[in-house]
Amino acid sequence: MYFLYFRNLAPGHIVRLPGKAPSPHCNQVLLKTKVGILVACILTCCFLFPVGLSGQHSVKHSNAIWSNYNNSIQLDSHWSVVNDVQVRTKDGIDKWSLFALRTGAVYKPNQHVAVAGGIAWFGTMNYFPDKTLLANEWRTWEEVSYINNVKLLKITQRVRLEQRFLQKLLDGKRTHDFETRQRLRYRFEVGYPVYNEKVMLYAGNEVMGNLNYLKDNRFFDQNRTFVTVETKLTGSTTFQFQYIRLQQWRAAAHVLDKINVFRGSIHQRF
Questions:
Q1: Quick check: helix, strand or coil at residue 42?
Q2: From residue 148, how far is each of 6, 7, 145, 190, 268 by CA, in Å?
């Protein structure tokens, strides 16, 4: 996995016209064009595999509501602790889908790079004709993020590795056995201020694959394409509304879920 590097997009490196220096307007237009082409290429590549699956197997369409509370506790100039709580529904608001608690530590050696790791618990609801069961998942995770500012654009790339331990169900009952999965995630996101830096608009994509299923149809896990509007409520609190087009592959059922996700989240810094 390689990070994309945007150094050549800096002023003075965008265009060279013989006989005269490039105008600021010309540089800005070329910058937006390059970033637009790059984002389009990434999103297109991320969609190629899910589209192939949908042509071979059945597709299910649905809606979901996700809600998050996130906070970050700054310990010093380099270290912080991050936490989040999640509640999700499926089939609109008809059914509970998932509950989650996650915590971790973040180290930032400079303004561009962040290294993090932690642990999480996820509880997934499973519906049977006569009952509902909550299956546990324990997860450890490690990630590296790279943030680069190009004029007004905030470009974020993140690689995350997750060790997932999913509780197995048998005949409608929880067992003491867990399935282990190694999942790799790559996220690309571009942010742009639209109102005095109090409102940010983000767009991006994240693709996930199961590394221990490289040679069969369980490798692809899911793809998320999203648009986010972030509003600053106070100096330390923001609210995000996000639309996610989620495509998730359920290999056992040979079904590709295409889900419209509407997500609201509160983010606080201490």
A1: helix
A2: 8, 9, 10, 10, 22
Which amino acid, residue 234? T
Among 215, 224, 211, which Cα is nearest to 257's?
224
pLDDT for 61: 95
Write the DSSP assignment of 80-91 as a string of letters.
EEEEEEEEEEET
- Does the pTM surpass 0.85? The reply is no
- Read off the pLDDT of residues 23-46 as tens digits, 9 standing for 90 and up: 656 655 555 565 556 555 555 555
Specify whether the backbone of 171 is left (phi greater than 0), alpha (psi in -120 to 50) or beta: left
> Rounded to 5 degrees, what are φ and ψ at 99?
-130, 145
User: In the predicted model, what is the mean pLDDT of residues 85-95?
Assistant: 95
Using only the alpha carbons of the chain, give its radius of gyration: 21
